[in-house]
Amino acid sequence: VRLVESGGGSVQPGGSLRLSCTASGLPFTTYQLNWWRQVPGQERKLVAQINTSGHTFYIQNVRGRFTVSKENDKDTIYLQMTSLKPEDAAVYYCNIGSTWGQGTQVFVSS
Hints:
The chain is mostly beta strands and 110 residues long.
């Protein structure tokens, strides 16, 4: 079972990034899919979820700016991030069941 993330990078405030996470070795369509983020010295925090029916959940401070989606035929989950703020800077992780990706770094600064 493996999750491989991509799409992190450095943007200015107000910019956008799209993170991707491709799964292998697990029945992708039967799991709720999650994005988390972690700032050094702080706990990892849930950012967004998409369940097997396509229903989504977002934490309040990303609602309206982030969009979680998935492509079942590609076993891939996405996190489209817009209007990025400096406080969005973190390592972002995808998570499916008990499996975690390696993390992808997002920097937001001018």
